[in-house]
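ZP: hey, is the adenosine monophosphate complex queued? I don't see it on the tracker
AM: it wasn't, my bad. submitting now with these inputs:
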Amino acid sequence: MHATWNNSYALLPEQMFARQTPTPVKAPASLVLNTELAEALGITFDENWPEFIAGNQVPEGAYPIAQAYAGHQFGHWNPQLGDGRAVLLGEVLSDLGRVDIQLKGSGRTPWSRGGDGRAWYGPVLREYLISESMHALGIPTTRALAAAATGENIQREPGPLPGAVICRTASSHIRVGTFQYFASRDDIEALQALLDHAIFRHYPDVKNTEDFLKASVSAQAHLIAQWMGVGFIHGVMNTDNSHVGGITIDYGPCAFMDDYVPAKVFSSIDRQGRYGYNNQPNLAAWNMAQLATALLPLANDTDAAIEQYTNIVQEFSDLFKEEYTKIFSQKIGLKPSSESAILIKKMLEMMEQTGADFTQSFRALGSDEISLHIGEHPEFRSWHDTWSQTANLENLNQINPALIARNHTVESMITKSVAGDMQLFHDFHMALKSPFVTPQNLDFTAAPKANEVIHQTFCGT
Ligand code: AMP
Ligand code: MG
């Protein structure tokens, strides 16, 4: 594995990370390699690449570290989280800019607490597939560069499961929780260094703390609106999984919804529905308020900063609404306006009442057919008449995907992969690269049959 490494995070104050090499495993083996992304990053891999992804070899020029962070998990403060099963190999400079290369599932670190530092095929292949699918949908996200099997079993609740490591890339791994870690320790040196670094990585034109917060709030509002537009539910929007650059990070028990249920929750650990589909904007705003709080120790005049930052965080709601209306107006072929907002609301209402499939209902607008369920609604005809008078159907199939990573297919892919059959993974992955093209295999676009519906997604770390 060769790349142009340039490890800027490792030059920050030493309390911000721990030097940590990945722990070697028994038998590294290939699962999947993203050759297109590797090429764009200027990374070359030989046939022994699984050795590097599984962590048995460290590439020359890398400087592996585990990063410190804290976070609010389901609203409860945890002063110390950190990379418990991940190491940042370093950053590469490439056509895609400065990009983090991280291994996840690579062994214990000083932040592992009771954990084994490992991951199994399930979360690794889920993250691989869904992050690449989000990228193909045009949504800011970490990406998947490779996954390797470790040749070791790990213990999880259902019993021993085959271990794997995912190598992911990101514009950085700076979380709201990274700021919280240093703010809560009154470590002004690290907090300032982190802010400067985050500005350098994400918002190079920003000159002060206030504008950094503004940029972060705006990026997050755009991101969540994009999630909503494809029916994506992250599942664990804790502050440690909230990225200050506004990219999707830490794919756990996430899922795309099938039938439209506004409060839909998949995650088995989200018992109160905190991170349900339509709660996501509120929670993102809450996370941004935690970022604002974590920036306060850097302010000269705390009272003035509180007022200023409160106003910035309050802007989230309008920013989100504007972006949401824009995205959903595009989805129904209209320019954003108060009329389009009414039509969107009505369409979603009819979808909810008829148990219509989210993806199929929008996709059907771009063709002559009407999606089965929503068409049954008594008010659908009159909605359709009003809508079709002004709607432009031309580009709808480039806006409404035919294909999302449906949960029942993801689960069945995991089951087969664990049994040694990766074919479904590869076929599904290939199709998900072109989500706006109706795939040859129509099983991938079909809503789950009653007996296929997955109601809960387990965190399954
Ligand atoms: P996550 O649910 O992936 O966002 O992780 C929450 C926290 O738990 C992070 O600090 C992780 O590093 C840590 N963690 C998750 N799984 C493991 C594991 N298998 N071993 C050690 N730490 C873990
Ligand atoms: Mg996390």
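AM: back. The pocket of adenosine monophosphate (ligand 1) is lined by residues 81-85, 111-112, 115-118, 236, 240-241, 250, 252, 461 (CB under 6 Å).
ZP: great, adding it to the tracker
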